[in-house]
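Two entries, shown back to back:
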Amino acid sequence: MLAVGLGCLGGALPRPAEAATEAAFVSEQVFAVAYGKIAEVYLQQVDFGRLGLDGLKGLATIDPTARAERQGNTVRLYVSGSLIGEYAAPSLSDAAGWAALTTKAVERARLYSPTLYQAVPERVYQVVLDSVMSDLDGYSRYTGTQRATSERAQREGYGGIGLSLETANGRTLIRNVLPRSPADRAGIRSGDQLLAIDGDLTARLNESDMRDRLRGPTGTMVLLTVARDNNPPRRAPLRRERVVPNTVNASVSEQVGVLKVDRFNAATASNLRDAVLSTRQSMGKGLRGFVLDLRGNPGGLLDQAVAVADLFIAQGKIITTEGRHPDSRQRFEAGPDDIAEGLPLVVLVDGRSASSAEVVAAALQDSGRAVVVGASSYGKGSVQTVTRLPNDGELFLTWSRIYTPAGYTLHRQGVQPTVCTSRTGQDDPVSLLSDLRDGRARPMTQFAGWRARAADDEEALARLREACPWKEHEPELDLKVALRLLAEPALYQRAVALSSTNTVAER
């Protein structure tokens, strides 16, 4: 509780901040939902005595004179060296109590700090929650309203018409049109010029304005004026639908389907299925196999990673997850179908392949369904829940660890390629495969001991990292190695045998 006898707190108090306009209130609900979720689902039980106090210390990011400290069961708040409030500290497990205290302390500090008074509530949420989240692991984070809105659109989709724009030489051109989207069905094509949106000339709008005008609630209408080549402009009325960006790009090289997946959003598995079927249909019996390129893929939705792995694995375990919350303990099994019908598969990874990308690579490797080529992946072996807060910001909280079919955790160590392309001095596809061809390649079973300890053992982790370092190398090298493997079925089968599951611990 805030002490009311401020006259005996000691020191001369600064005068309450004055402003021409009334400052917006900071909502206790934002802190209450955030703190409550941390208490409920975070991987480990937390101490709100530490988290709550550190959250208040975050105010110093806005006003360096703002300071919070705890002495016994009392939290004291200072601005410009003067004590402005005292609060009884809630218990270490009282998330709601700390949310209430945080709100009261923030509003009190804003009365005595002109800088804090002028800060918009979103800025206050950001600095407080950033400070709270810094006490957790490196993957738990708070995302403010503007960025969260953009990330949700990429992850879950948005109301729109399915096109993207680029501005060049004073003209607004349509860059990409999503297949089967409202724009596609209306006959709009890449390269068309966009002249107006709802009658307003695009020449008078910036890119942000145009994007906002194209998006809107599903079911609503937008009128585009477009022109192609030297033809007269035409008007195209379009009804907005839920649009999920396509993260899959398919091509063919040397009779091999190359499937590049940039990240995992709500449509990734569906788009990848379509790409595989389309490639098989166009190539027929001449198709030798597939390359699934996950390099640079930072991850995304876990259910989509499981679904992507399930596209190719006919049976067996995909992953298991374990955490403190009962709902975080899950086991995912593959269904009976393989969309590629057994065609050889090579997966490409690098040091930027993380999270869901690692789930897919590990499941395909451990099951013996694919050969992994490239450099050791990032090592983000945890699952985050996403909570939408009352201010439309988002809270990402780690709530479980991921374990591969072989039983090792991806945490810190990532996925070890069967064919490593990142060692110093190895830049020729033929020489890279010579050990495999001559029977000298190291089987994945040799990594089992290091894998079992690497999550907590620095020496074991260093051994794994040295075996196939994160080092950047020529991007085309990975694909060249993959294509050569797929061109030699016997060599590919030898690599698959080396990749087969070696159980670290049954889960």
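entry 2 starts here
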Amino acid sequence: MEHLINNRVKNIEISGIRKFFNMVAHVEDMISLTIGQPDFQTPEHVKEAGKQAIDLNFTTYTHNAGLIELRQAAADFYKKKYHIEYSAEHETIITVGASEAIDITFRTILDEGCEVILPGPVYPGYEPIIKLCGATPIYADIRNTDFRMTAELIESLITEKTRCIVLPYPSNPTGVSLTEPELQEIANLLIDKDIFVLADEIYSELVYEQQHVSIAQFLKEKTIVINGLSKSHSMTGWRIGMLFAPEYLTMHILKVHQYNVTCATSISQMAALEALTNGVDDALPMKEEYAIRRDYVFKRLQSMGLEVIKPEGAFYFFIKIPAINITSFDFCMDLVNEAKLAVVPGSAFSEFGEGYFRLSYAYSMDTLKEGLDRLEGYLLSIK
């Protein structure tokens, strides 16, 4: 009966990140620097709010778009942090993680045959959904612009079929973010074009030397902003995302969301309400620690002679594989077999990631030190 399965589903793959993680998970004495999973615990006061929700029997459906109190807190969060005003009632939707927000956005705005421009390398969660919608992903090769998506690159790829530009920043896998002038230039390019922007800002609270700026400041009427609490509040398993867009968009996105999941989990919503009110700055101590780890890892990688750009946000390094005739997958498998160190092959982030590997520093300093010692030993052994 497999021949009856939707061909679009058969033609997409499990995320290369998860595929590699699962492939090496059984190896004993493995140091894994693969997953973008904060090693901090969910803040205690947020966990208590979730427990109280259960004790108070807050276990029923909520409004499809989420509790109005939570939507208001989310809108207030964006106003306070990023200076953009959204209506809690009409322009804010609480989703099951940022992943669902991406899914329902694409399913709302994409038609058969249209095109979506996205940077390459990029997080692998966009392309499969684009293809499931019958649309075509068009990659902008950002390897020669220090992994920065530019207005010039975007302009060179726009056609009459272009429906959406994906701007994920800070970036997974590169850690690169975009500055206000860069975003203003992209907004100026798109201001008179019938093209949407999907701004995936899930790492917005983990930007180090500069303040995060949303392109919605300049292009609000065309932008769908996606965020969530997984990275900022170490709430990956709670699955709470936030989607902001003008009402003419959210009124349709909400329909897809409703038939997809009905609503986000009520218990998680109550925990999220605590996170976005009393815990609005919970990310700050985590960010300080990540910055220390980033600087340590950067110095170690430089001392090994590796080609790498210092991340401006998130918690990843995207590292050029030394000049040896080997694919990123084979390099990473050899690293597993010879050094018992797991990182993610760059090929997991599109063809434009080939020749690189991603290392996550969302791990303790002890784990990072041991992992980098193993990497250094391996590199010395293959010289």
